Predict the structure of Coproheme decarboxylase.
Amino acid sequence: TNEAAQTLDGWYALHDFRYIDWNAWKQADDGHKKEALQDLNTIVQGWEQAQTEKVGSHAMYYIVGQKADLMFMNLRESMDQLGELETALNQSAIAPFLIPAYSYVSVVELSNYMAKPGSDPMENPEVVARLKPVLPKSKHICFYPMNKKRDGQDNWYMLSMDERRSMMRSHGLIGRSYAGKVKQIITGSVGFDDWEWGVTLFADDPLQFKKLVYEMRFDEVSARYGEFGEFFVGNLVDREGIEHLLK
Ligand code: 76R
C-alpha cells in the first residue's frame, strides 16, 4: 500500500447553486416578493455575522450561462452547521423562487506534499488562515470538481509518495506564478460528494481562470491524472445586487 498524503482539514464547505424561477417570481404578488427579499436579507445578514464572528465565511456570485443563476458558497466549523444553514435557506420565503441546480459538499483541505518535516503546521498562523479562510470579494469565481485518475497505467493512487510529491511541486510552481491574480481554495470531498476535490478560484480578471487552467493542463499531474466535472463561472453579487436583479 502506498503512503496516503496527510491532509489538514479546515472548515466544511457547501457550494449551493440555484436557478431563479423567473416565471414564479413574475407571477408572485408584491407581498410575497417583499417577504422573500426580506428573508433573503435576514439570511445573508446571518452569514455576514458568522463571518464577523470568524465562525464561517460566505460568497455570493451570479453564475453566467445556463447551469445556474446564483451560487451561495458557505464555510462553517461543522457539517451540522452547514446542514442547518441549508435548511434555513430552504425554509425561507425566498426558497420557492430558488430552484436547486447543483451542490457540492467538501472540506477545506491542505495536503502535506510540500510541508516542512518536523514542523507542526497548526502552529503556523498562515496555515490556519488558509484552513479557515475569509472568502475573497474578487469580482469573479470559477468552481469545478475533479478527480485524480485511477485508470490502468494512469493511477495516481498507485504512485509512490516521492513521485506524487515531485509532480505536486511542479503543480504548485505553476500555481504560484498566478499569485496576486488568482486565489485558489482546494476542498476535499472523498466520502462527501461525487468527485474527490472541489476547486474554487477567485480572480478580478476572469481570463486568468482560463490561462491558469489551460497552463495546468500541460503539467503532468493535470495532463495525465486530472479528470474534471462541470465548470461554473460567475460574477460577484451582494444583497443589493440580488435585490436589483429581481426588481
Ligand atoms: O497549498 C499549496 O500552496 C502547496 C502547493 C499546492 C498543493 C499541495 C497547490 C498549489 N495545489 C495543491 C494541491 Mn492546487 N490546484 C488545483 C487546480 O485545473 C487543474 O488542472 C487542477 C485544478 C488548480 C487550478 C489549482 C491551483 N491542487 C491541489 C490538489 C490536491 C491534490 C492531492 O492532494 O492529491 C488539487 C486537486 C489541486 C488542484 N494550486 C496551487 C493552484 C494554485 C493557483 C496554487 C498556488 C497556490 C499558492 O501558492 O498560493
Summary: Residues 5, 110-111, 113-114, 146, 148, 168, 171-172, 175-176, 178-179, 182, 184, 186, 197, 199, 201, 212-213, 216, 222, 226 surround 76R (CB under 6 Å).
